Amino acid sequence: MSGPSVSAPQRFRGEHLGLPEHGPGSIATFGTRFGALIIDCVASGLVAALFVAGRHADNVADRLPGSWSLIPLAVVYVLGLSLGGQTLGMHLLGLRVVRLDGQRILPIPAAVRTILLFVLIPAVVVDKDGRGLHDRVTNTAVVRV
Length: 145
Prior knowledge:
Shape: elongated
Low-confidence stretches: none
Number of helices: 6
Structural class: mainly alpha
Mean pLDDT: 88
Order of helices and strands: HHHEHHHE
Radius of gyration: 18 Å
Number of domains: 1
């Protein structure tokens, strides 16, 4: 009589997902993913600033885009992931979001992933493969191009 099967220990992030250890298609590091997010946030802030720049205010803080920058960020994420699997920041840093079943990312899952990313907690709670909750919910992974 044999006992329950035990899977082999994971040697690298993404191994159980069928992804390579290094090179194109391998799981992106947290630092690179975070860098792409920062680029996207700055770009979205600059776009939002174009719309609030004309406001007259006594101090600089009142002229900053604030939460308005979330609108272009959401648009960039949903459209970028739906159309090409990447945002500006991901493109610049050589990353892409892929569905693990090989299909393209549809707008609704892209929107769900974006909303969960905005909550931030799902993005920092990662599994053994380095995927955040927003990736697990949408069956996606951020990989190197």
